[in-house]
Amino acid sequence: MSEGETVAVLVLRARDGDADAVRQLYLRFSRAVHGVLLGYVQPADADDLTHDVFETALRQLHDLREPAAFPGWLLSIARRAALQRLRHVPPSSVDSSSLVDTASTQEARLEAHHALAVIRSLPEAYRETLMLRLVEGMTGPEISVRTGLTPGTVRVNLHRGMGLLRKALGLVDVQEVGT
């Protein structure tokens, strides 16, 4: 996408059937969708659902009143898809192993599973921004652009989410020791 081309322009082009605009939207937002989905479902489901979310969004693109609102609208479709998947998948089938390097030790895998479970237990805003930062590797500004959140909101969500994550994992920040 050229620097001057906004999300709204891409959405309008995609509505008109421009395959390149669709591809650009997918490239720009697929990591954000995947990260949000990981906050709810297992990695294999998140992979499948990422494509499903974009198919749903493309079918419903004509319903989007404000093209600039695409990031938030797309992520709301992702959340609904994840919640629907959760209703149809029994809890016993939960397996986070594909997020963890198979060459890692058993202890490292258990720690990663525990960390993922803790992140999933956090409030939605923190869970999503942490997944996008820690799992998808996005920067704060990238998260802002991909989610439609303001940079300040992203910073606050990351800061508070990391604090809750540290606390839940029993990690004490050096600054907290002195207080």
Q: How would you describe this structure in keywords?
A:
9 helices; 179 residues; Rna Polymerase Sigma Factor, Chain: A; mainly alpha
Pairing-aware structural class of the strands and helices? mainly alpha
Query: Distance between termini?
Result: 48 Å
Number of extended strands: 0
List segments where confidence is low: pLDDT < 50 over at least 5 consecutive residues: 91-103
CATH topology: Rna Polymerase Sigma Factor, Chain: A
Q: Could you state the order of secondary-structure elements as H and E?
A: HHHHHHHHH
Assign the CATH architecture.
Orthogonal Bundle
Kindly state the mean pLDDT as a whole number?
85
- Rg (CA only): 18 Å
Q: Outline, from the CA principal axes? A: globular
> Percent of residues in helical segments?
55-70%
The amount of beta strand, in percent, is under 5%
Quick recap:
This protein has a single domain (7-171), classed as RNA polymerase sigma factor, region 2, helix turn helix motif (Rna Polymerase Sigma Factor, Chain: A, Orthogonal Bundle).
Q: What does this protein structure show overall?
A:
The chain has 179 residues and is mainly α. It has a single domain, classed as RNA polymerase sigma factor, region 2, helix turn helix motif (Rna Polymerase Sigma Factor, Chain: A, Orthogonal Bundle). The chain has nine helices and no strands. α3 (43-60) crosses α4. It is globular and about 50 Å long. The N and C termini lie far apart (48 Å). Residues 91-103 have low confidence and may be disordered.
